[in-house]
Amino acid sequence: MRRPRPDRPGPGQESVWDYPRPPRAEPDHRRARIRHAGVLLADTDDLVRVLETSHPPTFYLPREAFGEHVRPSARTTVCEWKGVARYVDVLVDGAEPVVAVGWWYPEPDRRYPGLRDRVAVYPGLLDEITLDGERVRPQPGGFYGGWVTDDVVGPFKGGPGSWGW
Fold it and tell me: Which of 22, 70, 124, 148 could share a disulfide with 137, CB 3.0–4.6 Å?
């Protein structure tokens, strides 16, 4: 499959095609707020963003930022870079649980120590995520958990025809 033509970033934007492979994890101090079923699940500026070629950034929040709203799920997967991921469900009183809405690395690969005890979530499965007040859009396709905001340009992996990128 042929690599797509990257969109040209404008002022203040990044192209996901300039992100590295293997991915890079870096601190980020924008404010993330996550809401679901009328409840503020998390509100923090203690973020780690993971940047990987062709993907919008994935943001990891401290597990404690979710309070009692997350519980470990039975699902696990393996990332070739970061290691074994364990999934979490979101619980809100009076609402159905959101199953496998996010993941964390109990023992991340030694290259990603900053991900320990941090949770990333799929934005498309929750009612609202904002990053510094901007509403986050989900990465296309539902398989990946990138956060699309106005400061990143694609095209983004995940949509139809992008599997082999």
Answer: 148
